[in-house]
């Protein structure tokens, strides 16, 4: 049984910072960017390299203001970040060195910022997920017959006010692609999972490492042979072209998703916290969430996935007249595939699944031994013949997910085909999705124009990040964009051909752009940043946040958002926060409270612009 500990209250200390930012300090043994924590050096050559200002040539603030994007001070007027027409201007990046000068304005000097004196959490919190380990909330449940215990039950806001250190024997993670086949045991020391899975050839302990033989999927075949078998059963599956975004339910140790990367398919693995499978997946560098099919909708929009896979996932699909499979149908794209392989071949289990699939108007397109494949129709002419009480009321929004209960009714696909007719990958990444039409925006330009401008902007900025910040591509794998908008940051990384994946988070406090993100061939999730995120501590290498804290500042204490960022950030990991000048200095004070090393940089808006980039790195320390 896991230890659950009552969080202690925060104590607040107000510290006065003189916001004079002087760059050009020579690296030395005592310099804050050349440091060793608990005997491990955190890439001091990366941290001490000169930091730069990203400048986009051919674009002055005046030109951007004429597009209705920047004001005369260089600040963004709205959430829409855009540049001019592709035919008119060619973009180039010039990284200008600003290491030998400093930027100071009267607004930023002699300011008082609130800081916090955070205690260190108890050792039993090393794997603490606040909304899933809330003993008080769980104890108040009236029922657990449908898996309610594994759903979110958040403590009251602000109740977690301590820092979770790395376990005593924690090491900086093995890097991708090597991490696909081996990880450090002491980073995820769950002996029970090893005992449960070792007999199935999924996972093996080898001295101080956990190794993942490629015999994961309930079969003597290796994973790549299993994937080949599926494509032989279904030649139209088109890995990496027609099929780009997949969901693996009850993911085991996520070898299915790990091997699909080789075929240019990004797979999001989900599993409840009881077996820690998601933690193993993330340590390997495979996208994962701690999530469960129980009583609430999954946090994905309708028509999100091109392929949904369930192999031995121990789900009672027949429960409540198939309500869980109805939820799978909601997030499965029109014309997409559901692949199912039960733990044991039992005729009655197969008949039940086939009857449920028929109820959803799915077509069975393959059955071979232990594997069955169904295809969702491109339209719901089949469902229209059903009685009206089977269908959802038109007022039910299939894209609303935050604390929304599962629906037993069936949602008709849009008559206009939105979400179903997409280009193949990689063309879909840069093609404006038709579901842009569903987003409410105050834009003088056409939505497709805004989309293309956003894409070009982030292509340039990401190139500038990689060149100007000295980020070593091999040091990063698990990335989160905390306010993803259209997924432009993630798309920019794809353009740069870095071997990273991005969890695109769309805050519920803004527009729901998540359908567009999935239509582009990317992954993401809805979230309220006034509550903790459902992942383990130490799971992301880089957190990227543009305008997030300003957006949430009126809703909750941003100190708790920074504390949550620290919880999910790996030691040695980086944080990039782009905010208004005032907010950047507030966040810097909070970043120092959680022991991060910080540096403030200019953006393309210049030294007198209204925003700056805060670059932080988390040191390794043990508790």
From TrEMBL:
One of its GO terms (biological process) is methylation. Pfam families: Methyltransf_29. InterPro entries: Put_SAM_MeTrfase, SAM-dependent_MTases_sf. The keyword Secreted does not apply. Residues 1-30 form the signal peptide. Gene3D superfamilies: Vaccinia Virus protein VP39. PANTHER family: METHYLTRANSFERASE PMT10-RELATED (PTHR10108:SF1144), SAM-DEPENDENT METHYLTRANSFERASE (PTHR10108). This is Methyltransferase. The lineage of its organism: Eukaryota, Viridiplantae, Streptophyta, Embryophyta, Bryophyta.
């Amino acid at each position: 049984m896991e230890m659950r500990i009552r969080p202690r209250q925060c104590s607040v200390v107000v510290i006065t910072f003189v916001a004079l930012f002087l760059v050009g300090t020579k690296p030395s043994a005592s310099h804050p960017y050349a440091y060793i924590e608990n005997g491990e050096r955190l890439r001091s050559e990366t941290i001490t390299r000169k930091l730069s200002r990203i400048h986009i040539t051919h674009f002055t603030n005046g030109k951007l203001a004429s597009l209705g994007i920047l004001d005369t001070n260089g600040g963004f007027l709205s959430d829409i970040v855009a540049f001019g027409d592709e035919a008119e201007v060619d973009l180039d990046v010039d990284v200008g060195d600003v290491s030998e000068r400093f930027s100071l304005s009267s607004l930023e000097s002699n300011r008082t910022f609130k800081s916090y004196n955070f205690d260190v959490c108890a050792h039993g919190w090393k794997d603490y997920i606040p909304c899933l380990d809330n003993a008080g909330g769980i104890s108040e449940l009236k029922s657990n017959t449908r898996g309610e215990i594994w759903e979110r039950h958040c403590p009251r806001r602000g109740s977690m006010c301590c820092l979770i250190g790395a376990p005593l024997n924690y090491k900086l993670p093995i890097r991708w692609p090597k991490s696909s086949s081996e990880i450090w045991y002491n980073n995820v020391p769950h002996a029970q999972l090893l005992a449960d899975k070792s007999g199935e050839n999924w996972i093996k302990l080898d001295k101080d490492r956990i190794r993942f033989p490629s015999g994961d999927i309930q079969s003597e075949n290796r994973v790549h042979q299993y994937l080949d078998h599926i494509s032989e059963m279904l030649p139209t599956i088109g890995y990496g072209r027609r099929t780009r975004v997949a969901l693996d339910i009850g993911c085991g140790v996520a070898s299915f998703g790990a091997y699909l990367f080789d075929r240019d398919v990004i797979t999001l693995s989900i599993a409840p916290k009881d077996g820690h499978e998601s933690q193993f997946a993330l340590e390997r560098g495979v996208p994962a969430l701690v999530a469960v099919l129980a009583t609430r909708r999954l946090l994905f929009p309708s028509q999100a996935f091109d392929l949904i896979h369930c192999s031995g996932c121990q789900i009672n699909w027949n429960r409540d007249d198939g309500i869980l499979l109805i939820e799978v149908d909601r997030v499965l794209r029109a014309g997409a595939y559901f692949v199912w392989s039960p733990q044991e071949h039992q005729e009655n289990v197969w008949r039940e699944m086939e009857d449920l699939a028929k109820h959803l108007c799915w077509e069975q397109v393959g059955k071979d031994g232990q594997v069955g494949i169904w295809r969702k129709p491109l339209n719901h002419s089949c469902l229209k013949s059903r009685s009206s009480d089977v269908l959802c009321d038109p007022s039910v929004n299939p894209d609303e997910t935050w604390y929304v209960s599962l629906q037993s009714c069936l949602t008709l696909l849009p008559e206009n085909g939105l979400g179903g007719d997409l280009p193949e990958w990689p063309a879909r990444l840069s093609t404006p999705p038709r579901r842009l039409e569903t987003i409410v925006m105050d834009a003088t330009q056409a939505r497709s124009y805004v989309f293309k401008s956003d894409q070009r902007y982030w292509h340039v900025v990401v190139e500038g990040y990689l060149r100007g910040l000295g980020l070593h591509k091999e040091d990063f794998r698990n990335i989160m964009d905390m306010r993803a908008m259209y997924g432009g940051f993630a798309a920019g990384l794809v353009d740069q051909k870095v071997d990273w994946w991005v969890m695109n988070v769309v805050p519920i406090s803004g527009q729901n752009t998540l359908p567009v993100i999935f239509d582009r061939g990317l992954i993401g999730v809805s979230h309220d940043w006034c509550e903790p995120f459902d992942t383990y501590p130490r799971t992301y290498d880089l957190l990227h946040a543009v305008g997030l804290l300003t957006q949430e500042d009126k809703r909750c204490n941003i100190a708790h958002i920074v504390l949550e960022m620290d919880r999910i950030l790996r030691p040695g990991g980086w944080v990039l926060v782009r905010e208004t000048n005032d907010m950047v200095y507030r966040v810097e004070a909070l970043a120092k409270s959680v022991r991060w090393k910080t540096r403030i940089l200019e953006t393309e808006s210049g030294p007198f612009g209204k925003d700056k980039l805060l670059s932080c790195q988390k040191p390794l320390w043990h508790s």
